[in-house]
Amino acid sequence: MKVGTDGVLLGAWTPIKSGTVRILDVGTGTGVIALMMAQRHPEAEIWGVDIDPVEEACKNGAQSPWNDRLHFVQQPVQEFEAEPFDLILSNPPFFVESLQCPDRGRTMARHAVALPFEALRDAVARLLKKEGRFALVLPIVEAERFERMAEGVLRVVHRTYVRTTPRHPAKRCLMEFVHADSKAEPQPDDELMIGTGEHETYTEEYRSLTRDFYLKF
Q: Which of 38, 51, 54, 195 has its CA 20 to 30 A from that of 29?
């Protein structure tokens, strides 16, 4: 599948706190987010886990300068066992109640079939260090649903609402969570505009956020 804007946004936007040494990408797919984390943090060990085969992610990692720090595993995250992580990221499947596409690969990628939100919440709570962070990107309605479902287990400390142009309402929400009992202070919500409204013209804010990863910037 193509590299999507959601994954690039998540990989570029997610804060990396000092002392981060272990990072997990849940639903790694082609490994793009894991590769972005390796590029941004030169000392961290990066893991990617996916229920589907990870050959493409392994190939991409092997061709990168960070191959020695990248590890990809084909396994449901519900069954994945590892030492706790400082940072977990996920660009998860999100169509919860819509009709499924007859193409199984696309269905698995876009529908919360193999990774229900409750399973993602529980896996993150189990694999995240006590003061670790969890970042994900979802459409607005699904983001609100995930936040409600995670209440008492994970707590939001930062939201960035993403708009494609000034004429359109926010379509995506980038969210950062901590354990519910964490003492981390929340930050005010903010907004990111991708385009100016003119054809294929991007805002300087979006260019600045993603230019380390897009050759066109």
A: 195
